[in-house]
Amino acid sequence: MISPKQLITVLSDSNQPRTTESFIRVHRHLEGYFKRVMLIGLRIHGVQYETATRIIDSVHMHAIAQIEKAIVLLDGTSRKHSDVINEAKRNNNAVFVLVELFQNFSALFRNRLAHGVIDEVRDPATLNTLFDVDLWLFNEFESMLKKKYCRSGFDRPNEWGAKPGRKESIDSIITRLKLGKVSPNPIATKDVQQTLAGIGH
């Protein structure tokens, strides 16, 4: 995971150049920020730190589902997912509008760049809008956390009330907290190296 210090440095820098490379950097750090918020939510629910980081590395969710799940976990109550999200939408509509734009606009550009569909964002208005969506989402989400919990996504989990977690299997936690499906891990580097050696590389 990206360190909180790196996250805040990148996401709080309003003077960074608005280039394609900077957009990719901001977007990657915003994704890292939401993974950090998810970590806090898992820790609030008694998941040990090391296990929580492994879950974040292995559970696949689309942006909207991940952000909503983080909000539900931070709530820390036994209320239904839909009740927590509906209340959050009533009180913080801008966050959810920006989350939709994050998934359906800026994440799509980031994916096109990452997968070689395009090599840069040439239109200055589009590039500025990509930055606006990502940075406004970060600021609005932080504002929501401060308003509701008097906390930040950069605070330590124990400052949110997390206690030392109990030992529990990842599968059990995923089921208990309804976290979705686990993505397969990449092949081990040594296995890839052996395969490459086997074909004369």
What is the succession of H and E elements?
A: HHHEHHHHHEH
Number of helices: 9
Biggest beta-sheet profile:
2 strands, antiparallel
Distance between the termini: 32 Å
| Dominant shape | globular
Low-confidence stretches: none
Counted beta strands? 2
Helix content: 55-70%
User: How much strand?
Assistant: under 5%
Mean pLDDT: 92
Describe the structure.
With 201 residues, the chain is mainly alpha-helical. The chain has nine helices and two strands. The chain has a two-stranded antiparallel sheet with strand order 1-2. Helix 1 crosses helix 2 and helix 2 runs parallel beside helix 4. The protein is globular. The two termini are 32 Å apart. The model has no long low-confidence stretch (mean pLDDT 92).
Brief write-up:
With 201 residues, the protein is mainly α. It has helices at residues 4-11, 20-44, 49-58, 63-75, 81-91, 93-114, 124-149, 170-176, 189-198; strands at 59-60, 181-182.
Task: Summarize the SSE layout with pairings.
Elements: H1 4-11, H2 20-44, H3 49-58, E1 59-60, H4 63-75, H5 81-91, H6 93-114, H7 124-149, H8 170-176, E2 181-182, H9 189-198
Antiparallel strand pairs: 1-2
Helix pairs in contact: 1-2, 2-3, 2-4, 2-7, 4-5, 5-6, 6-7
